[in-house]
Amino acid sequence: MVRIQFAIDLHYELLYPGTDFVFNIHAAQTASQLVISEQLQISQPVLTTIQTNPLTLARYLRLTAGPGPLHVNYQATVDIDHHVGAPDTIGETPVAKLPLSALTYIYPSRYCQSDRLGVLAMNEFGHLPKGYRRVEAIQDWVRKQVAFRSNTSNSNTSALDTLTDRVGVCRDFAHLMIAICRALSIPARFTTGIDYGADPALGPTDFHAYVEVFLDHRWYLFDPSGTAIPMGFVRMGTGRDAADVSYATIFGSVTSPPPVITVSAITEAGRPWELPHHRTEALSTDAALNAI
């Protein structure tokens, strides 16, 4: 089990009244991820609503703010008790047996054009035994083909662009891996959160994008960028691709600096918390889903 503490600071300057915000910055409550404590501070005296998506368990903060400065601060302490699986025993779930909630993640989406990658996917991975190890091979292939480099992509960059350019940031690695998995009829989804353990040389702590793949009736964690430690991920949002899980969707004219994020792992003698570290086992923070 790991205990993670983090804080997110967001600053905006609003130009007009009636600017609507939808934030996805709250830690999700999942089968293995328990929010021990949390605090939300908003500088303007506005009404807020927090809603939970019953399928993804993502939590959305909604508010309407007036002109001038807006400061949003969210802090949380989260315990994560991962489900741990043996990779060689985890198989793929046939499409005919997928639960309805997983079906949407085998189709092409805006940034993951899996319908354009069928030939590549079959040439590279079609001969491999189906299961966790095949998905691991996809992850490793993406990591070898693409170089991590800041400021090399933008909000329009898709999996096909990343395959061509061979550079990107974490969201680009995730999109490419997801597209290849879906081309092989393996459900894969885009996940965002906070990560403890990223290399400081990559820059200030930021939101992290990674991949969850549905195998043997459970969503398992993969980090194709290789820049973080999956055991230190705090999940916030899941979706088909980055278009579904922006940390802030804004309906109005605003200016803002980058978010400021701090994260730490807590350990204490006599308690079960350990520092996140790389593991060879398969990790999940979701409950198992029954096949049809």
Which stretches are low in confidence, meaning pLDDT under 50 for 5 or more residues running? none
> What is the name of the CATH architecture?
Roll
Average pLDDT for all residues: 96
Query: Strand pairing plus helix content: what structural class?
Result: alpha+beta
By oligomeric state, this entry counts as single chain
| N/C terminus separation | 31 Å
The gyration radius over C-alpha positions equals 19 Å
- Tell how many strands the DSSP assignment holds: 17
| Name of the level-1 CATH class | Alpha Beta
Helix count, DSSP H or I runs of 4 or more residues:
5
Query: What portion of the residues fall into strands of 2 or more residues?
Result: 35-45%
Helix content: 10-25%
The domain tally reads 1
Biggest β-sheet strands, sense, barrel: 5 strands, antiparallel
CATH topology: C8orf32 fold
Sequence of secondary-structure elements: EEEEEEEHHHEHEHEEEEEEEE
* Overall geometric form: globular
Descriptive report:
The protein is of the alpha+beta class. The protein is 16% helix and 36% strand. It has five helices and 17 strands. It has helices at 100-103, 118-125, 132-145, 159-165, 170-183, and strands spanning 2-14, 19-23, 33-42, 48-52, 59-65, 68-80, 83-85, 147-148, 167-168, 188-195, 208-215, 218-222, 233-239, 248-251, 254-255, 260-266, 282-284. Strands 1, 3, 6, 15 and 16 form a five-stranded antiparallel sheet that branches. Strands 4-5-2-14 form a four-stranded antiparallel sheet, with no helix packed on it. A four-stranded antiparallel sheet has the order 12-11-10-13, with helices on one face. Strand 11 and strand 12 (218-222) form a beta hairpin. The radius of gyration is 19 Å and the shape is globular.
